[in-house]
Specification:
With 301 residues, this protein is an alpha/beta fold. The chain has nine helices and eleven strands. The chain folds into two domains: 35 residues; 263 residues, Aminopeptidase, CATH 3.40.630.
């Protein structure tokens, strides 16, 4: 009788343990979510909910150890890379147009062709952007931006006082030019952690096309580094300019440019353009949205 009671109690304890194990184990839907962490729920412009292929990569850190983040949309092998904020707080609207692009890609992910991945680096110079009090990891309100012209000018540079768009390996010089001013190009090409982070990303991922936003002149400028404008760059320039309404130019010739990012990309046989917004405050989103849509169609198989 005693043995029977013991066996009965053991059966109850085992059964209870199995029941609790089942109740606390993850469901199949929970497992699917953990296994595909790139899927993010979003609401489309028509009110529908869909899953977006979205992920991010910290490609490096700034002088002051702020993260430089690349956000990825889609999973194709043809990568379109969009870059804002290389001149930090001086050209803060280039970071905002990048964040608007990210919002657009999340809400219209179905427009990303299966063979395409769009990567957005909204802020390449986070220390410069932080100098004017703006967020370096999320969109921000223009109303919070300082109107102090001296501060805005100083925020063009990184925390080593280097102009990052004079720090790349095409005609690099220690002393570069910006308008009628002499600026630092760094102690050598890629001497700065921000430009080195981008270099490493480019060499690892080999994007098909790169668009870099600057301000302010208004126009789309092709790239080259004494090797002529490539067929890919000509097509990229034309596609962006035709739809956006910005005028297309074969080169930037307002003054001599050394150590320029897009020209370094051209040196490495990557199609690249500079898109200069018309002023330092507007994102001209309608123009740039149309151009991004045109690029997605152009690079679709």
């Amino acid at each position: 009788m005693k043995n029977t009671i013991i066996i009965f109690l053991v059966i109850i304890v085992v059964g209870l343990g199995v029941y609790l194990l089942i109740q606390n184990s993850p469901s199949s839907s929970d497992l699917d979510l953990k296994q595909d962490q790139n899927l993010t729920a979003t609401t489309t412009e028509t009110g529908e909910t869909q899953l977006v292929d979205k992920s991010k990569t910290i490609i490096g850190t700034s002088v002051e150890k702020r993260d430089i983040i690349a956000y990825h949309y889609g999973t194709g092998n043809t990568e379109i890379l969009l870059i804002g904020g290389i001149h930090g707080g001086y050209s803060w609207n280039t970071a905002l147009v990048a964040y608007e692009t990210m919002d657009y890609l999340e809400k219209a992910s179905s427009t990303i062709p299966a063979n395409v991945r769009v990567t957005v680096i909204p802020v390449l110079n986070p220390d410069g952007l932080a100098k004017i009090g703006a967020s370096t990891t999320a969109s921000f309100s223009p109303s919070n931006i300082s109107s102090n012209s001296a501060l805005l000018t100083s925020a063009r540079f990184n925390s080593h006082n280097v102009d990052l768009n004079r720090n790349f390996d095409c005609d690099w010089q220690a002393a570069g030019t910006w308008q009628n001013k002499t600026v630092s190009g760094g102690s050598g090409a890629f001497s700065e952690p921000e430009s080195q982070a981008l270099k490493n990303y480019i060499e690892k991922n080999h994007p098909t096309a790169v668009v870099v936003w600057y301000s302010a002149a208004g126009g789309v400028y092709a790239s080259n580094c004494h090797n002529g404008i490539s067929t890919g760059t000509r097509a990229l320039t034309k596609t962006y300019a035709d739809v956006s309404g910005y005028k297309a130019y074969e080169n930037f010739d307002f003054y001599e440019i050394t150590g320029d990012m897009v020209n370094w990309l051209a040196k490495n046989d990557i199609a690249a353009i500079s898109v200069l917004l018309s002023n330092h405050t507007d994102t001209e989103w309608a123009k740039n949205k149309a151009a991004i849509g045109a690029l997605l169609k152009y690079y679709a198989k």
